[in-house]
Design a protein that fits this description.
Chain lengths: ~160, ~375
């Protein structure tokens, strides 16, 4: 029973002492300690979320990077393919044009040759008449007496010319 | 919660043991001589009274026994401060000569509920005065001094810890004392305050919870130290636990919000006949408000006192058996010592657990005092 008897003095001193400790520690211990702990936790949480965010952004950037690279490669391939195509078409065009020009030149030269040939034939014909006239003149001049024979001879000559 | 299981086991064990101890040892209570001293145990004339030894060690006293050298006793005689019939008496407890002397009409009560405390005696110097008016006893007893020592120690420890936190930048790893106390402080905050009160409302209760936790924990541990300045049964004293419980009570009602008071006096959602004309529910609620700190008071007191009693009982076992036969005393000693070592470890656990339980339950009461309005 004596154990359960509260003592006035102890209650009084305990109240004073504990109250004092409570006030002192509240001001000089718990406040700074809890402050630092809270601040540290907040900072940690912030750093953590920052890290998470940055990680996320980095992953975003990485996907963007890969897609960009893929796009660039695609464009690059396209450009090369197009260039090749163009080069081929240019070569083909050039070849076509050259062929065309060659054809035109050949045509023109054919024409020219034909013209020259015609001119040559014409000239030959005109010379032939002159030559005939010359032969005729000589025949007339030298052997105009024997007319029959001359005529035959002229005919003979004419024939031979015509055969040529 | 694993801690809870441990706590229940430890408590059950202590209670069973204390019960056995209390029932077994009075058997040895033969007509004990006045001047009991454990060194006299081997003297067949001086029977060892285990019950008296145990109760005397658990109770508060006016002087603090330090040690004996041979027959000489060394004690700190603490000041006795009495208010009697409007007069102040202030003298050293040496005047009582451990209960053998009467000083200015005051003497230490030998038995009864006031055992070990100053009472008024008649002119013969022995018989208690049945007509004496009330004595207001403000003496600096052993437990008062122990409370002062523990308070000074707490202030020194935590002011230095607080100073380190003030100076350190927040990213620095704690070293030294902060390294030791930070987990405990975080434990009180996260596992007690936030758990029981909630993350929004716990902040104003933190200073009290931390102070109570460390005060109880430190005093529990000091109570396990068998020599000065330890050894006083501070947290196993009903006055101390009463004050702690009252602090919890007043803190609860200081911070209690409107909803709490409404629930106490006008519980919403219950039939009117429970409140008027006979206020059954308000009475129940009010009784509950007082029972809560009362339970806190009893729990801490009973656990710590029971623990002290078990240890003292086991120690006494040596002397009880030794008074029967000195050989039996020696024979039982090794076993007792092994058991005592085990018990001391258990009591370190209990020291922590009881501090935890007291703080946790206080926090639960605080949590109940600040409920959300719509619930």
């Amino acid at each position: 029973m004596e154990l359960l008897m509260p003592g006035l003095g102890l209650i009084f001193w305990m109240t004073v002492s504990f109250g004092f400790v409570l006030l002192i520690l509240k001001k000089y211990a718990w406040k700074p300690i809890l402050n630092v702990l809270n601040k540290r936790e907040k900072e940690l949480a912030k750093s953590f979320s920052d890290a998470k965010r940055i990680e996320y952004e980095m992953s975003q950037l990485a996907t963007i990077k890969t897609t960009k690279i893929a796009e660039a490669e695609k464009i690059h391939d396209q450009i090369i393919a197009k260039a090749k195509e163009e080069a081929e078409s240019i070569v083909a065009q050039a070849r076509e044009r050259a062929r065309e020009e060659a054809r035109i030149i050949a045509e023109k030269s054919d024409e020219l040759i034909e013209n020259y040939k015609k001119a040559a034939i014409l000239e030959l014909k005109s010379q032939l008449s002159t030559l005939s006239m010359d032969i005729a003149e000589k025949i007339i001049n030298e052997e105009f007496s024997d007319r029959d024979r001359n005529v035959r001879y002229v005919n003979k000559l004419l024939n031979s010319v015509a055969e040529n | 919660m694993q801690l809870r299981h441990l706590f229940i086991n430890a408590k059950a064990f202590l209670i069973v043991f204390a019960t056995i101890a209390v029932y077994v040892f009075p058997v040895a209570d033969t007509r004990a001589a006045e001047h009991q001293n454990i060194s006299d145990a081997d003297n067949p004339e001086m029977k060892f009274d285990a019950r008296k030894v145990i109760v005397d060690h658990v109770l508060d006293s006016y002087d603090w026994h330090l040690f004996d050298i041979g027959e000489r006793e060394f004690s700190i005689h603490l000041p006795v401060i009495l208010l009697y019939e409007g007069r102040l008496f202030f003298f050293s407890s040496k005047r009582f000569d451990h209960g053998y002397a009467t000083y200015k009409g005051f003497r230490l009560a030998k038995e009864g509920p006031m055992k070990g405390r100053a009472i008024r005696v008649l002119d013969d110097g022995i018989t208690p005065d049945p007509e004496a008016s009330r004595i207001y006893d403000f003496s600096m007893t052993k437990n008062v001094l122990a409370v002062f020592v523990a308070s000074a120690l707490l202030c020194m420890l935590f002011i230095s810890v607080g100073k380190k936190y003030r100076e350190a930048d927040i990213y620095s790893t704690p070293t030294g004392l902060p390294l030791f106390f930070e987990p405990l402080i975080l434990f009180v905050r996260d596992q007690i305050a936030i758990l029981a009160i909630g993350p929004q409302k716990y902040k104003p209760f933190m200073p009290y919870l931390l102070t109570a936790f460390f005060f109880i924990f430190l005093n529990n541990l000091l109570g396990l130290v068998p020599f000065f300045p330890g050894g006083a049964n501070v947290t196993g004293n009903i006055s101390v636990t009463f004050v702690l419980a009252m602090f919890t009570f007043f803190t609860t009602h200081w911070f209690a919000n409107k909803t709490y008071w409404q629930h106490m006096f006008n519980m919403p959602g219950v039939p009117m006949f429970l409140k008027l004309p006979i206020p059954i529910l308000p009475v129940i609620e009010m009784v509950g408000a007082f029972i809560k700190p009362f339970v806190l008071m009893i729990r801490l007191f009973a656990n710590i006192t029971a623990g002290h009693m078990v240890i003292l009982s086991l120690t006494s076992l040596i002397f009880v058996l030794g008074s029967v036969s000195i050989l039996m005393g020696y024979a039982i000693s090794p076993l007792t010592i092994i058991f005592l070592i085990f018990l001391n470890f258990l009591k370190i656990l209990v020291a922590f657990l009881q501090a935890y339980i007291f703080t946790l339950f206080s926090a639960f009461f605080f949590g109940m005092a600040v409920p959300d309005p719509d619930h």
